Amino acid sequence: MDNLSGKVALVTGAGGMRGVGRATALELAREGADIVISDVKRAAADLPPQELKAGWRSLESVQAEVQALGRRCHVVWCDLSAAAQVPQLIEQAISHFGAIDILVNNARAIIGRDKVPVTELDEAVWRRFLDINLTAVFLATKFAGRAMIRRGQGGAIVNIGSENSKRAYPCTAAYTASKFAMIGLTQAAALDLAPHRITVNAVCPGMLDTDRMSYWEQDQARQQGVTQEEFRARVVADAAKAIPLGRIGESEDVARAVAFLAGGKSGFITGQAINVNGGTLFH
Ligand SMILES: NC(=O)c1ccc[n+]([C@@H]2O[C@H](COP(=O)([O-])OP(=O)(O)OC[C@H]3O[C@@H](n4cnc5c(N)ncnc54)[C@H](O)[C@@H]3O)[C@@H](O)[C@H]2O)c1
Asked: Which positions are catalytic?
């Protein structure tokens, strides 16, 4: 399929071996887009054990996969917790390919330190979640949106929300607040950018089997005397039991929804927050 032929897509948080960012970059490339992938350089202690074992090389591995699909791929390292780096990311993407047609705000703060009751939540953790999950999304929308308006050929922005964009779970105050606010930002930006034929939507996954790093899971595994992978497998198996469609979501499930919202066939859809959750939540 060549739905996105001639388009340029920027995907943040794209370095994970089984993450939504990588799956999205590959799906958009399969649809014909050239890709800019971005992530932060992480210390080994902040990487999931599966990536360390596999010798995964983050964005460099993903770049090779995109290129193997016959598309061009540019890598930009960027720490989204540093607000000043966000306009530089957009600028570098545009100076490399000449334009951004599609922006996918996928990155999020590494989870785990936030998994405490609100009365125990550290203010620095709260701020970090808001910085990466919300302020960086606002800034990327602002600067990519400006460039799309200047170019005058429309565009698509897709924000990766969560089931936590629509309902809270215990011990998720920072994550849930950031993901709810992302939906408000999606709706407001959709209205501001609609006159320029730029759509802004969110995709809200339920729990996914992504091997993402979680400090909480690392601590729990240590306490229970099992490996992080063993603990994770239990979490995934338990979660799957509660999902009406009978399985946990995969990054590719989300990537296909993003590709739909990024393509011309969804041009009359904007300001929406679409669930990809196997039937766990309907609004
Ligand atoms: N995994 C799930 O179960 C799940 C469920 C619902 C929603 N989501 C959402 O899907 C998206 C992707 O999830 P995932 O599990 O693939 O992600 P993840 O937890 O692996 O994180 C995504 C990426 O963000 C990057 N990142 C972290 N800090 C950063 C920083 N300071 N600057 C730049 N990049 C940074 C990470 O390096 C990683 O590659 C997220 O927005 C997440 O909230 C995931």
From this structure: 175, 179
107 CA: nearest ligand 1 atom: 24
Mean pLDDT score of the chain? 97
**Which residue ranges make up each domain of the chain?**
8-210+249-276
Q: Tell me, in angstroms, the distance from the centre of ligand 1 to residue 126's CA.
A: 16
Choose which CATH entry (3.50.40.10, 1.10.10.10, 3.40.50.720, 3.20.20.450) describes domain 8-210+249-276: 3.40.50.720
Choose which residue among 10, 20, 129 to substitute to test ligand 1 binding: the one with the highest number of ligand atoms within 8 A of its C-beta.
Answer: 20
Choose the residue to mutate in 108, 134, 135, 162 for probing ligand 1, maximizing ligand atoms within 8 Å of C-beta: 108
Q: What is the pLDDT of residues 191-203, one digit of tens each?
A: 999 999 999 999 9
Other beta carbons within 10 angstroms of residue 265's beta carbon come to: 11
Name 240's Cβ contacts closer than 8 Å, sequence gap at least 6: 246, 247, 248
Task: Tell me the pLDDT tens digit for each residue of 201-251.
Answer: 999 999 999 988 899 999 999 999 999 999 999 999 999 999 999 999 999
Residue 1: what pLDDT? 54
